[in-house]
């Protein structure tokens, strides 16, 4: 996966796969606490599909109202838009806007990391089988480690070895943490996983 065309297809595929999966859960399951502290599945999906509902002008107007505090705006939109019907949130996941979306300054690498991690934030607590394609998972893991993405989450991987148990990927050396590619990515992003999903000292 070496160019924007490949990455964009991977982004689109992740949004589609997540939409298909969440389209089959009950209304009560939408209220399941996600891996994002304080957010249910509803808030997570409402958060990372903002671009499907707000134009750039609308988003910037809301951001100005929040004194350019993106965290505040993100929380406000997640809380309010989480009340949308699940069918609408699923439709947002399938939106052509999201399939082409890139975060400011992040490119398609940023978009791919966003949809993969937040998708796992939703599916892991549901206990729903969801395996990210190996090639996609390698891109995300490389972005989070060699690409320096871990620093965005305050996670220190210096002196640690990371080894995926379900694909041919490893990083670094030292005290080893082992788990699926998905679970390692979540650990690098500072998520707390259910007990027994990884082996070794946490990051």
UniProtKB/TrEMBL annotation:
Annotated GO MF terms: isomerase activity; metal ion binding
Q: Which keywords does the record carry?
A: Isomerase
Q: Name one Pfam family in it.
A: MDMPI_N
The segment(s) forming the Mycothiol-dependent maleylpyruvate isomerase metal-binding domain are 13-97
The protein's matches in InterPro entries, at most eight in alphabetical order, are given as:
DinB/YfiT-like, Maleyloyr_isom, MDMPI_metal-binding
Range of residues in the leader sequence? none
The answer to whether the entry has keyword Isomerase is yes
Give yes or no: UniProt keyword rRNA-binding.
no
What NCBIfam families does its record include? maleylpyruvate isomerase family mycothiol-dependent enzyme
Query: Under what name is this protein listed?
Result: Maleylpyruvate isomerase family mycothiol-dependent enzyme
Question: Organism classification, top ranks?
Answer: Bacteria, Bacillati, Actinomycetota, Actinomycetes, Mycobacteriales
């Amino acid at each position: 996966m070496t160019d924007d065309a490949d990455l964009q297809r991977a982004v689109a595929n992740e949004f589609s796969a997540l939409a298909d999966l969440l389209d089959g859960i009950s209304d009560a399951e939408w209220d399941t606490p996600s891996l994002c502290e304080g957010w249910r599945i509803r808030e997570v999906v409402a958060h990372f599909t903002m671009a499907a509902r707000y134009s750039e002008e609308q988003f910037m107007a809301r951001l100005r109202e929040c004194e350019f505090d993106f965290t505040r705006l993100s929380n406000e939109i997640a809380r309010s838009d989480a009340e949308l019907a699940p069918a609408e949130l699923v439709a947002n996941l399938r939106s052509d806007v999201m399939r082409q979306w890139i975060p400011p300054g992040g490119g398609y690498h940023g978009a791919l990391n966003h949809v993969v991690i937040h998708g796992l934030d939703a599916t892991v607590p549901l206990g729903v089988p969801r395996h990210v394609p190996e090639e996609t998972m390698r891109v995300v893991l490389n972005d989070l480690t060699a690409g320096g993405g871990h620093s965005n989450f305050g996670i220190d991987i210096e002196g640690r070895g990371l080894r995926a148990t379900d694909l041919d990927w490893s990083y670094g050396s030292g005290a080893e943490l082992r788990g699926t590619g998905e679970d390692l990515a979540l650990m690098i992003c500072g998520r707390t996983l259910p007990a027994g999903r990884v082996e070794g000292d946490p990051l």
